[in-house]
C-alpha cells in the first residue's frame, strides 16, 4: 500500500491519514485558530466544520482512500471516528452497480394520452391514472448512484391504500391533521397519499439532517405540531423514543409512528367522500418554527395552480421532470411531484442530500433520463458551477432540458449568465433558463416568463429607485445599475398589482408591495385569524414582496420587511449581501444586511453582519476595511455597524434562506458580539434630511395631483352632462363633450397626443373603429381626440343607469347584450343596419378592462359587422390611460395619453359561403390587432391562443 492509500488492515495508519485530511481542511478554514483535533472531536461544536465543509471533507476522503462514501455520510457523522468507520465500511463493502454512463438514455416511458381535467381532488387524480395506465411508471426513485425503485400509478395507489387502512385503525378521521417528517423516499410518497385517501390533512415538516440532533430538532418544531393540532406524526424510527417529549409540548398528539407501524390490518379500507373545497394539506412557510404560519391549501387550490403552471409551460406527455427538491417544500411537493402526477409526467427524484453531496448527480440524471423540466433555487445552480469540473462537463448532454426553473429565493442575474455560459457546451440552451415567482399563499406558482425566451434582465437607475421608488431604465454607460430579472407576467387566471404604503395601485415602473389574486389564493393561515386578516386587502392578497411591473411583467426588488430606509433612500440588502460575501475570508451566503433604529438619533442604522472563521484581530480589521469600502462603493453610504461573527451565527431558515428579521432581533437584543460602529449618528441624521424631504415632497405631490384631478372632474362632469342633455343637435353635443374632455386633460396637466388623424375616412364616410380598452378614461379621450360624431357600441348593462345611460343615449350610443347568444345576434343585425345607414361605429373590442396591463382577446362582433356592412375597419390604439386610472382604483396618477389611428382596412367582398366571411372577419381582426398591439404599449395577453369570443 502507498502512503496515499494506507493499508486497510493498519487501523492506526488509516486513522492518522484521516486526521491528516481533517487537519488540512481546518488549516484552510481556520488558519489563525486551529482547534485541538481528536478522533472523538465533535465536528460541529469543537471543530466548527459546517455542512459545506463536511461535503468538502467527504470528497477529500474519497480521493485519499479511493472509496465511494454514501451520500448521507456528510450528514450522519458527528466525529472523525464516525468518518473512519464509514471509510472502513466502504472499503469492505462489495462494489455497487453505478448508473449507466450519462450518454446512455433510459428508454422513454409510454406518454400519457390525456389528463384528468374533471378531477376535483388529488386522490381522484391518482385513481384516474391508476385506472387508465396502471403499469406506467410514475416515479423513479434514485439513491446515490443507483435507481432504488420505481412506482407505477397502481403500485402507489395500492401501497397508499394499505397504509391508509392502518391510519384508520389508529383512529385517523377525515379532517384530522397528520404530520409527516420523513426524508425523500418511498415512505414519504406512500404516507402522503395515504393521509389524503383518509380524508385527513398532511402537514409536511422537514426532517433533521443529522439523527444526533433529532431531539433538538423536534423541540424547535413542536410549535408546528401544536399549531396544526396534528393527532399523529409519521416519522423515522429514532423519533419514536421522543414521543413523550413531543406530547408534553403538543398534548393533542396521540402517537408517533413509522410507516412499518401502519402495516395494513386485516380490514377493508373505507375511503370517505371528498370535495374540491376540502383542505388538502397545510404548507408551513419557511422560518415558521417560532410563529408557525400554516398556509391552508384546498384540493381545488392545488389543481387550479397546477393547471395554470402546466398551461404556461405547455406541459405535455413527452416531458420528464427531474427533481432533488425537498418534498416538505412547496416547490418540490407541488411543482415537481403533484404537477408531474396530474400531467402524467414521469418524475425522477433524488434526495436533497444526494444533490448537496454531489451536485453532478442532478445534471447526470437530467442527461440520463432525458429530463425536460427541472427546478432549483439559485444556490443549486451556483453549487453546480462550483462543483462540476471540465471532465465531468464533457460527459453531460443537457440538450433535452427545455425549462430550467429558478425560484424560491432571490434570482441572481450573474448566476443565470454564468450557468448558461458554463453549460452551453453540454447542449444547454440559454433560453431554457426561467426565473419564476411564487409563494405558498398562492399554492406555489404565480408568475412565469414566456416559454423559450430566456432571462430578461432590467437595468435600473440606482438613484431613481432608491430616492423615488421609480424603476427608471439606466443609461447605457451607467457603471452601477441595479439589475433585476423578470419573473414574467401572472399565470393564466391570476392577476398582479403593485400598491403603495396606503394600498393605492401604482403605475408601471413604480416600486411598491406586490399583491395578487387568483384561483389558488389561500383562504388564510390555519388557526391564526390575526395573520390571515393582515394577509388580505379586499380581493387581493399581500405577498410581502417588493417589486414593480414593466410591460406587464414582474420584477422583484426585495422583501417589504427587509427594505432599509436610510438617509431618505431605499437600500436593498440582497445585492450588498452578495457583494460582501465575495470578499475573501467572508463565508459566501452567510452575510445578512438589515436596518436597525438607533434610539439616540431616531434614524436607521445600516448593519452588516458577516460570518468569518478568521479570529485574528489584524485579519478582522482588514475584513472590516474591505466591507466598509464595498458598502460605500455599492450603495453610496457606509455602514454604521459591521459585525464579524463566527460560523453558524447568521440565522437561516430550514431551506437555507437568510432570516433577516430574526437576525435583526438578535442584534437589537444584544445576542451577537459587540458592535463596531461606523460614522456618528449625528452626521447620519443630518444626511437623512434631504432624502426624507424629497420622498415626502413626492408623496405630497401625488396626493395633490389626485385631489386636483377629482376637483377638476367634478367641476366639468355635471356641466358636460347637463349640456349634452339640453343641446338639441348631436353634432353640438359631441363638440361640447370633446371640448370638455380636452379641458380635463389640459387642466390636470395630462398631455394628449393624437397621431394618424389623416388616416380617418373623410367625414360622411362611415367606418368601424376598433379600440383597445384600458381605463374609464378611454371614452372621453377618444371623443377629445377624434373630431367627428361617433356611435359607441356599449354593453346593455349601462342602458338603465340614469347618469351613464342617459349621457350615452344622447351621444347616439347603441347598447348590445354580450352574454345571451340569441339576443347578441339580434343586436348584431341592428348594429349592422346602423352602419349601413352611414354612422361610424366604435367598438371597444376587448369587451372590458382590468388593472392588469396587456392586450386581451378581441371579441368578433366589430369585424363581423364590418364584413356584413362592407365598412372599412380603422384600428385605434390608446396608450397610457391605464397608468393614470386603473380598474378598481379611484386614485389618479400623473401620465400621458397617446391616441394612434391606423390605416383603414378594407374588407373583401362578401362571399356566398358564411365560413369564408368568418375567415375574412378573422383576418380583419388580426390586422387590426397587430396595429393596436404595436402602439398600445402593453404586452399581448392572448399570445398563442386561437380561442374566439362569441360575436357581440
Could you explain the architecture of this structure?
The longest helix has about 45 residues, at about 680-725. By secondary structure, this protein is an alpha/beta fold. The model is unreliable at about 1-5, about 95-105, about 675-685, about 820-825 and about 945-950 (pLDDT under 50). A hairpin with a 2-residue loop joins strand 21 (about 565) and strand 22. The protein has 5 domains: about 10-90, Non-ribosomal Peptide Synthetase Peptidyl Carrier Protein, Chain A (Orthogonal Bundle), CATH 1.10.1200.10; about 120-440, Rossmann fold; about 455-560, Luciferase, domain 3 (Roll), CATH 2.30.38; about 570-680, ANL, C-terminal domain (GMP Synthetase, Chain A, domain 3); about 705-935, Glycerol-3-phosphate (1)-acyltransferase (3-Layer(aba) Sandwich), CATH 3.40.1130. Strands 2-1-10-9-11-12-13 form a 7-stranded mixed beta sheet, sandwiched between helices. A 7-stranded mixed beta sheet has the order 26-32-31-27-30-28-29, with helices on both faces. Strands 16, 17, 18, 19 and 20 form a 5-stranded antiparallel beta sheet that branches.
Report the span from N to C terminus.
Answer: 87 Å
Principal-axis shape: globular
The count of DSSP E runs of length 2 or more, i.e. the number of strands, is 32
Whole-number count of domains: 5
CATH superfamily of the largest domain: ANL, N-terminal domain
Q: Hey, roughly how much beta strand do the residues contain? A: 15-25%
> Kindly state the mean pLDDT as a whole number?
85
Low-confidence stretches: 1-5, 96-104, 674-685, 819-825, 944-952
The strand line-up of the biggest sheet is 2-1-10-9-11-12-13
Counting DSSP H or I runs of 4 or more residues, the number of helices is 29
Amino acid at each position: 500500500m502507498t502512503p496515499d492509500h494506507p493499508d486497510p488492515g493498519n487501523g492506526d495508519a488509516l486513522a492518522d491519514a484521516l486526521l491528516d485530511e481533517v487537519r488540512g481542511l481546518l488549516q484552510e478554514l481556520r488558519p489563525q485558530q486551529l482547534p485541538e483535533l481528536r478522533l472523538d472531536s465533535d465536528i460541529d461544536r469543537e471543530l466548527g466544520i459546517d455542512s459545506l465543509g463536511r461535503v468538502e471533507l467527504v470528497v477529500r476522503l474519497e480521493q485519499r482512500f479511493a472509496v465511494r462514501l454514501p451520500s448521507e455520510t456528510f450528514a450522519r457523522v458527528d466525529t472523525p471516528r464516525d468518518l473512519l468507520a464509514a471509510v472502513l465500511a466502504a472499503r469492505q463493502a462489495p462494489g455497487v452497480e453505478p448508473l449507466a454512463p450519462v450518454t446512455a438514455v433510459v428508454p422513454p416511458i409510454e406518454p400519457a394520452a390525456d389528463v384528468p381535467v374533471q378531477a376535483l381532488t388529488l386522490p381522484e387524480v391518482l385513481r384516474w391514472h391508476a385506472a387508465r395506465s396502471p403499469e406506467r411508471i410514475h416515479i423513479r426513485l434514485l439513491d446515490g448512484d443507483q435507481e432504488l425503485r420505481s412506482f407505477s400509478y397502481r403500485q402507489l395507489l395500492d401501497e397508499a391504500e394499505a397504509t391508509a387502512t392502518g391510519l384508520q385503525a389508529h383512529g385517523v378521521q377525515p379532517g384530522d391533521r397528520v404530520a409527516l417528517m420523513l426524508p425523500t423516499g418511498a415512505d414519504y410518497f406512500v404516507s402522503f397519499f395515504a393521509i389524503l385517501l383518509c380524508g385527513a390533512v398532511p402537514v409536511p415538516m422537514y426532517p433533521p439532517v443529522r439523527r444526533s440532533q433529532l431531539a433538538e430538532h423536534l423541540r424547535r418544531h413542536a410549535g408546528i405540531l401544536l399549531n396544526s393540532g396534528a393527532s399523529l406524526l409519521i416519522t423515522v424510527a429514532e423519533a419514536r423514543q421522543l414521543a413523550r417529549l413531543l406530547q408534553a409540548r403538543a398534548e393533542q398528539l396521540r402517537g408517533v409512528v413509522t410507516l412499518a407501524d401502519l402495516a395494513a390490518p386485516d380490514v377493508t379500507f373505507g375511503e370517505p367522500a371528498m370535495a374540491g373545497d376540502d383542505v388538502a394539506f397545510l404548507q408551513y412557510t419557511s422560518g415558521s418554527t417560532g410563529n408557525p404560519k400554516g398556509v391552508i391549501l384546498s384540493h381545488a387550490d392545488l389543481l387550479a395552480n397546477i393547471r395554470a403552471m402546466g398551461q404556461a409551460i405547455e406541459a405535455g406527455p413527452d416531458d420528464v421532470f427531474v427533481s432533488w427538491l425537498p418534498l416538505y417544500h412547496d416547490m418540490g411537493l407541488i411543482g415537481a411531484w403533484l404537477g408531474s402526477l396530474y400531467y402524467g409526467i414521469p418524475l425522477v427524484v433524488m434526495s436533497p442530500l444526494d444533490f448537496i453531496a454531489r451536485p453532478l448527480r442532478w445534471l447526470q440524471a437530467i442527461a440520463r433520463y432525458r429530463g425536460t423540466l427541472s427546478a432549483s433555487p439559485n444556490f443549486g445552480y451556483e453549487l453546480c458551477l462550483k462543483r462540476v469540473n471540465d471532465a465531468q462537463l464533457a460527459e453531460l448532454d443537457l440538450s433535452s432540458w427545455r425549462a430550467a426553473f429558478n425560484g424560491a429565493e432571490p434570482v441572481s442575474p450573474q448566476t443565470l449568465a454564468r450557468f448558461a455560459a458554463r453549460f452551453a457546451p453540454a447542449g444547454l440552451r440559454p433560453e431554457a433558463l426561467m426565473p419564476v415567482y411564487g409563494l405558498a399563499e398562492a399554492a406555489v406558482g404565480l408568475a412565469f416568463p414566456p416559454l423559450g425566451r430566456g432571462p430578461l434582465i432590467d437595468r435600473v437607475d440606482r438613484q431613481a429607485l432608491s430616492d423615488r421608488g421609480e424603476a427608471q431604465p439606466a443609461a447605457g454607460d451607467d457603471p452601477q445599475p441595479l439589475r433585476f430579472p423578470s419573473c414574467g407576467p401572472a399565470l393564466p387566471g391570476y392577476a398582479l398589482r403593485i400598491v403603495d404604503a396606503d394600498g393605492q395601485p401604482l403605475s408601471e415602473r413604480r416600486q411598491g408591495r406586490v399583491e395578487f389574486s387568483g384561483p389558488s389564493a389561500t383562504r388564510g393561515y390555519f388557526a391564526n385569524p390575526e395573520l390571515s386578516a393582515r394577509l388580505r386587502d379586499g380581493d387581493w392578497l399581500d405577498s410581502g414582496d417588493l417589486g414593480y411591473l414593466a410591460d406587464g411583467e414582474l420584477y422583484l426588488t426585495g422583501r417589504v420587511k427587509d427594505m432599509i430606509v436610510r438617509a431618505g433612500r431605499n437600500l436593498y440588502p440582497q445585492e450588498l449581501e452578495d457583494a460582501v460575501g465575495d470578499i475573501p475570508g467572508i463565508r459566501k451566503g452567510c452575510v445578512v444586511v438589515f436596518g436597525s433604529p438607533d434610539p439616540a438619533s431616531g434614524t436607521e442604522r445600516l448593519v452588516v453582519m458577516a460570518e468569518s472563521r478568521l479570529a485574528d484581530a489584524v485579519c478582522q480589521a482588514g475584513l472590516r476595511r474591505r466591507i466598509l469600502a464595498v458598502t460605500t462603493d455599492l450603495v453610496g453610504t457606509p455602514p454604521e455597524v459591521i459585525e464579524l461573527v463566527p460560523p453558524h451565527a447568521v440565522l437561516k431558515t430550514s431551506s437555507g434562506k437568510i432570516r433577516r428579521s430574526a437576525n435583526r432581533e438578535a442584534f437589537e437584543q444584544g445576542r451577537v458580539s459587540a458592535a463596531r460602529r461606523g460614522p456618528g449618528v449625528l452626521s447620519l441624521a443630518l444626511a437623512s434630511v434631504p432624502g426624507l424631504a424629497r420622498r415626502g415632497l413626492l408623496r405630497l405631490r401625488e396626493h395633490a395631483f389626485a385631489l386636483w384631478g377629482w376637483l377638476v372632474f367634478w367641476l366639468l362632469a355635471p356641466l358636460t352632462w347637463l349640456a349634452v342633455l339640453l343641446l338639441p343637435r348631436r353634432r353640438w353635443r359631441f363638440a361640447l363633450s370633446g371640448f370638455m374632455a380636452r379641458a380635463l386633460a389640459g387642466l390636470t396637466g395630462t398631455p394628449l397626443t393624437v397621431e394618424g388623424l389623416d388616416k380617418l375616412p373623410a367625414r360622411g364616410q362611415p367606418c368601424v373603429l376598433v379600440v383597445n380598452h384600458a381605463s374609464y378614461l378611454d371614452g372621453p379621450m377618444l371623443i377629445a381626440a377624434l373630431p367627428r360624431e361617433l356611435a359607441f357600441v356599449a354593453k346593455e348593462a349601462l342602458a338603465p343607469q340614469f347618469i351613464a345611460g342617459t349621457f350615452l343615449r344622447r351621444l347616439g350610443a347603441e347598447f348590445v347584450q354580450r352574454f345571451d347568444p340569441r339576443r347578441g345576434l339580434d343586436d348584431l343585425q341592428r348594429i349592422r343596419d346602423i352602419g349601413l345607414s352611414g354612422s361610424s361605429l366604435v367598438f371597444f373590442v376587448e369587451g372590458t378592462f382590468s388593472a392588469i396591463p396587456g392586450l386581451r382577446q378581441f371579441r368578433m362582433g366589430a369585424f363581423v359587422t364590418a364584413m356584413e356592412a362592407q365598412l372599412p375597419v380603422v384600428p385605434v390604439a390608446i396608450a397610457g390611460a391605464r397608468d393614470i386610472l386603473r380598474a378598481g382604483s379611484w386614485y389618479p396618477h400623473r401620465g400621458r395619453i397617446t391616441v394612434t389611428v391606423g390605416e383603414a382596412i378594407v374588407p373583401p367582398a362578401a362571399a356566398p359561403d358564411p365560413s369564408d366571411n368568418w375567415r375574412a372577419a378573422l383576418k380583419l381582426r388580426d390586422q387590426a390587432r397587430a396595429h393596436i398591439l404595436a402602439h398600445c404599449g402593453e404586452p399581448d395577453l392572448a399570445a398563442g391562443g386561437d380561442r374566439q369570443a362569441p360575436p357581440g
